[in-house]
User: Which sequence fits this backbone?
């Protein structure tokens, strides 16, 4: 599985928004500068993430956006699904109004298809186990490798 660029950018953007959590609202221009993402991409993602209930937008002179709920209550699965839709590894398992069924020659006799829901549920569970707070936390520096066995 590989995330699309938009899902990857959404995660980067949500990490930046989480770092502002508890402070002033941040606007799309500030977030674009902070993340290095193009402003139109940030605006598009703000719209998707707001529609998914992950960001709360406020218009006006002191407007901007902030996390719609605590960072600890937002997971990597939430962010990916806000941009990509339901997590499904196989095209035949994708559902929704904009997802078509894949033309798979094996579909009539596929012995794997009944097992994909379990695989998708397991993958989603793994992503749901990664809270935004963990992604936004600084990564501890590791000691340089000395080449000397321990």
Assistant:
């Amino acid at each position: 599985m590989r995330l699309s660029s938009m899902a990857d950018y959404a995660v980067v953007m949500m990490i930046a928004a989480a770092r502002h959590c508890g402070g002033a609202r941040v606007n799309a221009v500030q977030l674009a500068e902070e993340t290095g993402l193009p402003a139109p991409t940030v605006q598009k993602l703000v719209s998707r993430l707001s529609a998914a209930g992950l960001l709360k937008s406020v218009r006006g002179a002191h407007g901007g956006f902030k996390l719609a709920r605590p960072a600890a209550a937002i997971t990597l699965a939430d962010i990916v699904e806000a941009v990509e839709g339901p997590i499904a590894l196989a095209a035949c398992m994708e559902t929704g109004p904009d997802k078509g069924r894949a033309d798979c020659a094996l579909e009539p006799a596929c012995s794997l298809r009944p097992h994909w829901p379990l695989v998708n549920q397991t993958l989603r569970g793994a992503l749901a186990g990664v809270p935004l707070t963990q992604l936004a936390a600084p990564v501890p520096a590791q000691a340089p490798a000395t080449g000397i066995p321990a």
